[in-house]
Amino acid sequence: MRVAVIGAGVIGLSTAQSIYEQYHSIVSPLTIEVYADCFTPLTTSDGAAGFWQPYLYDKGNIQETKWNKETFDYLLSCLSSPESVKMGIFLQSGYNLFSELAPEPSFKDIVLGFRHLTKRELEMFPGYSYGWFNTALMVEGKAYLPWLMDWLQKRGVKFYQRKIKSFKELAETGPDVIINCTGVRSGELQPDPELKPGRGQIVKVDAPWLKHWIMTHNFTTGVYNSPYIIPGSRLVTVGGVFQLGNWSEANNSIDHKKIWDDACKLEPSLKHARIVEDWAGLRPVRSKVRLEREIIQAGPTAIQVIHNYGHGGFGLTIHRGCAQEAARLFGQIVEQKGRGSKARL
Amino acid sequence: MKTVRVVVVGAGVIGLSTAVCIAESLPFCSVTVLADSFSPETTSDGAAGILFSAQFPDIPLERQKRWFKDTFDHLLAIAQSQHSPEAGVLLSSGLQIFKEVPANKKPFWSDFVLGFRLMTDRELKRFPEHKFGQAFTTIKCECSSYLPWLEKRLRKAGGQVEQRKVNNLEELCKSYDIIVNCSGLGAKTLAGDSQVYSVRGQVLKVQAPWLQHFIRDGDGKTYIYPGVNSVTIGGTRQEGDWRLDVDKGDTEGILARCTKLEPSLSQAKVLDEWVGLRPSRKNPRVEREAVLLQGRRVPVVHNYGHGGWGVTLSWGTALDALGMVRQCLHEMPPRARL
Hints:
The structure holds two protein chains of two kinds.
Chain A: E1 2-6, H1 10-23, E2 31-36, H2 44-47, H3 62-78, H4 84-87, E3 89-98, E4 112-116, H5 119-122, E5 130-139, H6 141-154, E6 158-161, H7 167-171, E7 177-180, E8 196-206, E9 213-216, E10 228-231, E11 236-239, E12 243-244, H8 253-266, E13 274-285, E14 290-298, E15 301-309, H9 315-344
Parallel strand pairs in A: 1-2, 1-7, 2-6, 3-9, 7-15
Antiparallel strand pairs in A: 3-5, 4-5, 8-11, 8-12, 8-13, 9-10, 10-11, 14-15
Helix pairs in contact in A: 1-6, 1-9, 3-9
Chain B: E1 4-9, H1 13-25, E2 29-35, H2 43-46, H3 61-79, H4 84-87, E3 89-98, E4 114-118, H5 121-124, E5 132-141, H6 143-156, E6 160-163, H7 170-173, E7 178-181, H8 187-190, E8 197-207, E9 213-217, E10 223-226, E11 231-234, E12 238-239, H9 248-261, E13 269-280, E14 285-293, E15 296-304, H10 310-331, H11 334-337
Parallel strand pairs in B: 1-2, 1-7, 2-6, 3-9, 7-15
Antiparallel strand pairs in B: 3-5, 4-5, 8-11, 8-12, 8-13, 9-10, 10-11, 14-15
Helix pairs in contact in B: 1-6, 1-10, 3-10
């Protein structure tokens, strides 16, 4: 069978990995190709801080909580592997801060050592009166994506730098299944009114004395529209903004000033941090992740498509669970093909 | 006008902390620090500087609690301020793990660090040979930055430093009114204290910027302490061992034991090896004494013997020493105070 994956961000690459892992010994030959207009280090996944944390509440979407947990447990198990450093995976603890009481999050039993902040700890953050402490994982896109590409290349997966303009265009070359991992630009392949860009901007600084992530929350301004400071393995990512509907990938100086001023209030020592660069990216925001099969008619041809896009600001957080689910959907197609050929005997 | 001449012997974390306390609180005292070594050559410089404590047998618990709490609160304020990077003082979270469940699950300092709790079973899974653990957030105080920062603070308060090896207290009694002895291991000869002994410690400095948590084995011999620019891993506790040179066998042992706790260390580059001699004593000696020197009773305040807990107890014992200097001042004949 031939599988064509569109998109080489964390979703595209991890989906290719899951399909290979689960089916390369079952389906023979299994050819996997990845088509993308951009590759690491230029994808949305590369700019993200790489902090594992879902949105606070899943609003009944228990499927997404399950995928988040699967991803966390998977990354946790990778920690003991000799590859963990190359994969960009490591543990980091930190603070979720609020100015009012908030219900406990969907991820409280997924992360390690979740607890409420003590009075003394809250004293360190003037303006915040409530919060949590836990140990979470980091998975840095700039390391993880090259590691995934290397993993896939070693197993014969081929990469093509090409912007795919339609499913039909790709289908004409003959793949059995197309996996659509096109993130924020999925609408170009198939209009989706639920998919919108959630523009984010960050400042990357050199502040190696910071060892904890700090995420503040403001229920009025909404998710990611409140200061956050996330130390990485080399630089610290400072944010954040969340501008729904803004397609600009250019850095905005007004956003920079607000992000920087707010972060320095939260962490005074940032005053002495060397600013390395700014970056803006578009979170592929959707009411819920689109992870489902679709058969698209392109003239006489019926194209088998598996959609896996719309992961908002939690792509790295949820990637493995979604990739495994996409592989399961792929398995349905494999099974149908098998039954189909049996029926033809 | 400075009328009382105070000399502090020793420029490690104890000497400089004590000197700063005196200079900032007693403006009519002139404070001079005399030491054979200054940062980066002191014992304090190689220490990882992570705050938590042992319990000393003969010092009242309330006093030990005060020593710890005073130091922790002082350093926490620095960590939370804009001075954090220059002073080398930062918050550090991590785990202390035990192969056997300790008798005391909640040591006295657990109230003074942040967020102290017992580790969950899930967290302990990472360490199959360990049955019990504690998780908390404490302070890391890197003396290679902190000592120069203290020295700056000392000068600002009118204090001075001078590089000079002090061989005996006699040579000081003419030029100074009060002697503060923070000579660490040197107190063995300077104060004639046979209770002082060396506990040799070797550490490695490695490059592993992905490590954000400290991990310490409760036996105190294996630890991983991520710092600002490198990770300190160790260690050894060799009592009565005065060797300052690096022992390759110890290096191998440290790498093996630490990598077992943190497998990713196999990817870390070793930057440096260092040896320090902990200025150990059954209990730290923080007390005053009137010493007969050249026919005169000279007030001496001792502040030494902190072993591996120098950084941890630095500010608290410095404050105690300051209190003793104050007492010395009150007892001095009025003429000397003019």
